[in-house]
Amino acid sequence: MSEASPAVLAELRALMADDLPTHGGHTLAYVYDSGLAGLDRLAAEAHASASSANALDPTAFPSLLRMENDLVAAAAARLGGGPGTVGTVTSGGTESCLLAVLAAREASNETVEPAVVLPSTAHAAFHKAAHLFGVRAVEVPVVPGTFLADPAAMAAAIDENTVLVVASAPSYAHGVIDPVAEIAEAAAAKGVRMHVDACIGGWVLPDLRKLGAELPPFDLSVPGVTSLSVDLHKYAYCPKGTSVLLHADARLRRGHYFASAAWPGYTMLNTTLQSTRSGGPLAAAWAVLRHVGDEGYLRLAEDTATAAALLRTGVERVEGLRILGEPDATLLAVATEGGPGFDLFTVADEMKQRGWYVQPQFAHGDSPVNLHLTVTAANRGGEAGFLADLEASVAAAREAGPVEVADELAAAIAALDPDTLTSEQFAGLLEGAGLSGGGGLPERMAPVNALLAVAPPRLRERLLLEFLGLLYRYGDSA
Known about the structure:
Blueprint: H1 4-15, H2 39-50, H3 62-78, E1 86-90, H4 93-106, E2 115-119, H5 125-133, E3 136-140, H6 151-157, E4 162-168, H7 180-189, E5 193-197, H8 205-210, E6 227-231, E7 243-247, H9 250-253, E8 258-260, E9 268-270, H10 280-316, E10 321-323, E11 331-336, H11 344-353, E12 359-361, E13 370-374, H12 383-400, H13 407-414, H14 423-432, H15 446-454, H16 457-471
Parallel strand pairs: 2-3, 2-4, 4-5, 5-6
Antiparallel strand pairs: 1-7, 6-7, 8-9, 10-11, 11-13, 12-13
Helix pairs in contact: 2-10, 3-10, 4-5, 6-7, 10-12, 11-12, 11-15
């Protein structure tokens, strides 16, 4: 290592000092921590060994081909794959969902206006796919109070333009498994593909069933399910950058492959949206799966399920809080009881002050403002500390009272048109939210989130995109 390297690494560590912790179970969104000693080092060494290899050409790097096939085989074995099941390793759940939509669209060239039918709780990745690929998203309301897709309403929404029907196992926002079997039956009856988004739960759900959980059928063994996505960088505890998209047979997958010989260079062949792909994520995931093994994942699932159950029981004992729906897996949505005299945005700020990150989710349809908790194996043993801090955070939020958006600011927001929003209007809102200058985030996000909560969804999208643009300015990096 050169003399400069320690200094560079020290600088890197300094830059990361304000990041959320990725280990210890204190960040209950975005990251997945197994709590297993040495797993990070194994993954890092495997990643480094293959990071320079390029998965663009499997004939040049046959080791990557072997590892990808091994990962697909492991996912298929867990998730009801049959002899003809094929798969592709992607960069993440969003890319897997994008490719499922693309494959379905490409197989339906005669469709006048291709459409995908999805419950209102489906992941935003499917709306992104619709936007990118010119597919109409047909959003179907879920059953009130349960947040489960409505099979009858989903079936009624399928028409001659439908190329794909989607269900979640489980949904991210509420952790419930949609009635996949009924929806798949309706899709099959009309000759339409059916995709199960099991990105977040697909790896852990089979183990929860082994441990005695009564879960509805959801995988490729269900008649009518034609594709399924599962992320290895979630409950398989692999480093970021690996998801698997499974198809029931190769014919169904073909639409998301791409080839072009229309230039003087090599004939481009792509299995995913990317061309060049580092072999690092593949090798890291392959190493982690082999190291942890089936028995190891079963133990991790047991720890995660125990933690989730203890947290759910504890949350429901905190005055003014409740769990939305009946979560099937390891995700919890924490909402308030009616008129509690405090708001959850403040609770989130108070939890962060105490060293925990819980993710605010805005109201949408039948779902009120809530706090999302992704529970992992690393939360086992820390439940009492979390719940004590949650109770203290609720007490502090109750004492502070709900965050109020000034009437004049709410009126200004109501008058905005997301399609014609000007930089001057945006600057005025930043000033009202205490973000004048736009150079970063305030210590407490509750006033900002309260402001965003009164904005209609399309305006909220536009405001956040404008703010994102302010954050990504190279001139502010030095």
